[in-house]
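task queued by scheduler; priority normal; single chain, no ligands, no partner chains; default sampling; output format set to structure tokens
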Amino acid sequence: MQIKTFEGSNLTQIQAQIKQEMGPDAIILNTETTTQEGKTVYKVMAALEIDQNDITNFSPTQNPGSNHSLGQELNYLILEWENFKESIFSLLQHKNPLNVPKKYLQAIKYMEKQGVKKEIILKLATVLSTTKTASLLNILKENIPVSPWPNNFLHKKIHFFLGPPGCGQTLSMLKMLLQLRKLKNAKILLAYPINSNLEGKLVLEHYANLIDVDFKKISPEDVKELNKYPYDYIFIDLPHNEKDFFQFINQQDKNTCTHIILSPVYDESYLKSFLRQIKIKSISSFVWTRLDESNKLGSIINLSFYYKIPISFLSYGSQLKNSSFEGDTSKILRYFFKRETPNCFN
């Protein structure tokens, strides 16, 4: 992956520069807004995933009229709109300081520092200032849907796992598998797509042997027959390529769940760009991972408010055991505000 940071005072010009230098397939990883000598300065980190097999044939300007290029144009427009909204809300907040009860002021400021969007902050402030009986934690709980893993998914046999490259998809899947097996002594198959890369296949095979579960390669055509397989549960580590993972997702039936792996390590605009590739109706839950590696957890709150998709599982640390907890609003908020792990919950 090629990563490069661009800096300037005009976001539109920076985006045009990214497109010119890295091509239409570049993705935005992070956008920072700072003030230098009274002027707004944008720092944008962009990345380009290059297939090593085709690197000699790579051209950053190829297929400028492709659908993927049009999709990238849309991502740039959406990113610009998001930054415009943040600027407007910042201006409104500057002219009209938040009018919230003093007991919530510190928590609200902390949420802002954690990257919770200003439009959400203003909504919370409005409710807190107009409703005497309102509680910040209760409002957040009402807007963070959860569906705890594994209890709420025991009736589903097939589980797809998908996330952006490097988000911790495979490790999260393995942690969830172990949580399921701890609760229920079930026969589980760990499957990988037939077109997966060799390194990913070897990693999965190693862990399958380590935790003593069956391991098998499958194709999209096999999905419809999986219900006939002699297993209680089947876990499938989907490929990151959009064309490949859609071949699997399009085979979903009522006995299938799709868990989307996300991480606050990535810029929120990148996560939203990734989610736009997927049919939102096909998503069963969000799984948040690599929590310990991020200084800001605001995207967990933001995406819960935006998409209303339940959080099933949260993960931190590289070890398989004692490094995760199920989707529970109280635990999520305690981790968000205090960084308390399950060892501190009791």
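post-processing summary
- Confidence is low (pLDDT under 50) at residues 51-70.
- The CA atoms of residues 156 and 249 lie 15 Å apart.
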